[in-house]
């Protein structure tokens, strides 16, 4: 594989998976060095050939987690396996499967994972009795199969509707044998690193179990260790580095408040309702009037009817509210404004932004609000962008 072939594969398939970028040029290395090596927290170097003396650098600030380094290694192993097994005329088409194959390798190369992901692709392109298909399938390494094979089940139309994708799932062994089903109780509080409505599925995915979900929007989600770890949205796979996101979402300093904000970002993201959150740092509380009108402030001198209603609805700080209420408030047209302790200053607020601001209204509001602390925009297509000092610091 040439350096140029490697660069193209990394740029098209791996960089989006990790929300990273491929740097121009190369860096020197020793012959027979490791194909994937961490140069520093924000730079991962990748070699095209063991005989090479140069590497391509994948870059992201903040830095890569150990899990993301493992994902990168799995991706590179799959990339070289496909490159070595296929002729040049087939590689471009086969490379489109790279992210899914890398994810399957990262998760232990279980036959069931690759089979389920392929079936989800097929289901996402069709309907069942006029409706989009939603499904959840769990892989349990501790279960024994009953003799029915998942490959045969997938040939039948009924396989598309034997789970609902929220609180029921089909359970299989790692080698694709059916072992049963799960009817799952809803988690009352929701788990930290999952969309609220998928907490039941995520809670099942513990103790070595893996759950794969196809939702009615055609998105594919993978859960392990009670967390969302991968999702395919807008045609691209993405790895979720939850702890890294939490470290960067400051202000506020309070960990519980940051967790609550991040949870609600996931809820809004997968509900596809869009939203905007602004956190005001302690030193900028007196300047909040520069971006939020007095009528939008729920404790302002002349609150609007909306502000009075919101004040009556909330009882406590943001982190103490039920996640369902937080989602409803965030779905209001406008921005949720919090102080550094989690007190709700405004919801559905119109943020004063400079004329001619680039991007949509939520982007402009998040950037302007970040001048007083932290700004977060959740797009209706699910993307989460975080800003500080009017600069975007990461995308999830």
Give the total of beta strands: 20
| Through-space gap between termini | 31 Å
Give the overall shape: globular
Strand content: 15-25%
Trace the largest sheet across and list its strands.
10-9-8-11-12-13-14
What is the overall number of helices? Answer: 12
Name the structural class: alpha+beta
Which parts are unreliable, with pLDDT below 50 for 5 consecutive residues or more?
none
Question: Could you characterize the architecture of this molecule?
Answer:
The chain is an alpha+beta fold and 396 residues long. It is built from 12 helices and 20 strands. It has a 7-stranded mixed beta sheet. The protein has a 6-stranded mixed beta sheet with strand order 17-16-15-18-19-20, sandwiched between helices. Helix 2 (66-85) crosses helix 4 and helix 9 packs across helix 11 (323-330).
